Amino acid sequence: MKQVIVIGGGAAGMMAAIRGAQRGFSVRLLEQNEKLGKKIYITGKGRCNLTNACDTEELFAHVMRNPKFLYSAFYTFSNWQAMDFFEANGCRTKIERGQRVFPVSDHASDVTGALKRKLEETQVQICLHHKVEKILQEGGRVKGVQLAGGGILEGDFVIVAVGGCSYPSTGSTGDGFRFAKALGHQVKEPTPALVPFEAKEDWVKDLQGLALKNVAVTMEKDGRRLYEGFGEMLFTHFGVSGPLLISASSIPAVSKAEFPLELYIDLKPALDKEQLDRRILRDFEENHNKTFKNAIQKLFPSRLIPVMITLCGIPGEKKVSEITKKERMHFGERIKRLPVTLTGTRGFQEAIITRGGVSVREVNPSTMESKLVQGLYFAGEVLDLDALTGGFNLQIAWSTGYLAGESLGRE
Length: 411
Hints:
single chain
């Protein structure tokens, strides 16, 4: 029986091991941590957004780098097949806003539980606390792996599914890139993706913990628009985060731009300038005897009021009846275009995924096998593939992992 070694017990590795075992191979799954699926447990704030229920064709639009490479992977094991897989293995799913798919229980452990059950059923040999030092090859074909302790495991096929560099505490420390380089592969420089931004302004950090829902943002560089979006954002002790900003970090126009960048927040996107001015006038008329700071209580969350007063330049103690039209219009402009200076992104510790990785030009998209070394396969985040939030990155892992396991020995 042919021997398969899968390096990495994450999403892609577990799926690759399962499919390889289903095809009759003897599969060893090597994981350096004390348990499988460590990163899965923390995805989606512990709920695990395991895929997206959009049409399969729509998956490609959410992949930011090398979407065409995924054609065979997505159609060999689609998002709908992923949902069927988890349902069939005891993890009931539900679809939420944005077509995001979660376990009904809201527990990521149900996702790993389904995978573990299938690993046991298919008799995959799980080897925890096994760290691989290098992949062995001879004459352009893999021969096995050398472990960190010096031991050697022989194998006819090796699947590299060790992730990227994001969340290094889960074991994703870039080992896959080192393995690939040692075997002659090009690796596109890994950088943090789906990651929060740092900001220059102190007032931004003073608002730490404040979430804004239903806001619109635009990101610009020297007046050129790079990104616009609508949704939820969060102020932090270092800058800005939340789904809206994290998605923005992976848009190619943004990721390629040099910092600083200008972020403009529209606090009232449902109102155009004229409608907003009428709303402000109405609030002023209802509170004509009050001070400015007391007349705008209904416009913003309470923590944002002092910031808006400072940035619009109208003294908080000024009577509403004394505010000029020019001051009022300037106030409206600040509401529609609140400026923040972005100075950079956070590091891999806070990045959801890694941008960059093993060049897909050197991997067969129909099989996930290396074009340079026979019997060597890649799956998941180790490849130069990244997508937006919403379950798309895990779908890349399921699809590429499945295709690697499906393709073993078919060269």
